[in-house]
Write a structure and sequence with these properties.
alpha/beta, Rossmann fold, single chain, binds pyridoxal-5'-phosphate, 2 domains, six-stranded mixed sheet, four-stranded parallel sheet
Amino acid sequence: MGSGSNLLSKTAQFSLLDAIGNTPLVRIQHLTSSKSVEILAKLEGFNPGGSVKIRPAFNMIQAGLESGQLVPGKTIIDATSGNTGIAYALIGATLGYRVLLAMPGNASPERKRILKSYGAELLLTDALEGPDGAIRAIRDLHRRSPEKFFYPDQYNNDANWKAHYQTTALEILEQTGGELTHFVAGLGTTGTFVGTSRRLKECCPAVNTVCFLPDSPLHGIEGLKHIPTSMVPGIYDPRLASEQLEVSTEEAQEMCRRLAREEGLFVGVSSGAALAAARKLASRLRTGRIVTIFPDGGDRYLSDGFWNGSGS
Ligand SMILES: Cc1ncc(COP(=O)(O)O)c(C=O)c1O
């Protein structure tokens, strides 16, 4: 064997999955509402699969492998509005597992196409039933043939929030040197908010952890849940929220457009919502440093009309 193969055997595995996390944290330069309150955003679109959801998806699959619940031949199934599905599909392709995903029929066409490109199968549910309709469909499937499927159940799986407890929060602490006053995140499965807040509060008890939600049940902020009218995720812990803010779809879209044009940040609608929430908070503070999460990039939402400034 030549020296090249010796070198390879001694170095890293070069797995795509090793590239998860360690995403950039950037300062919002122009779209801040106050000069003395800094807003920093963690750009999760830099992850493999293009979103924050690769962190929990990988952690849930690893937990399944370790517990023996996921064995070769089983199909990975879950209900997902898109990003977790893309993450499962990518991991399934990498590790050699089939993936079947239920989602509301109105999920963006880009996401459906991306999922199919990774080889995942889709079960489209009634758009009017929202994410809860997809959850019911997957529970049904799993109940009928549990031996065929591995169902991580991201809404009730502790490995979801623990991914953020073990990675996202630690990265924020390292990137800021623990110098932050507020953490702001939106609620979908609630994993990002719960896991990151739990660790931040343990390490820096003075940090205020603020969550935000869409302001109405029928909203256009993909990935987020209107908790008061939805099934509350089992992993949610409302005691972690020092405050809860509301953001409208129009505010989120407006921020999204402005982030691209004024900051060079082409991000998804829930990132626009995160900035809208952070700005609401900033407008009430004299000084501070707010850290928020931008869950994905803007390319997945290109077919949405709002980019042109029409607001719809
Ligand atoms: C675009 C987007 N934003 C926000 C979230 C919410 O994150 P979490 O499920 O950790 O609450 C998700 C979750 O799927 C998402 O896809």
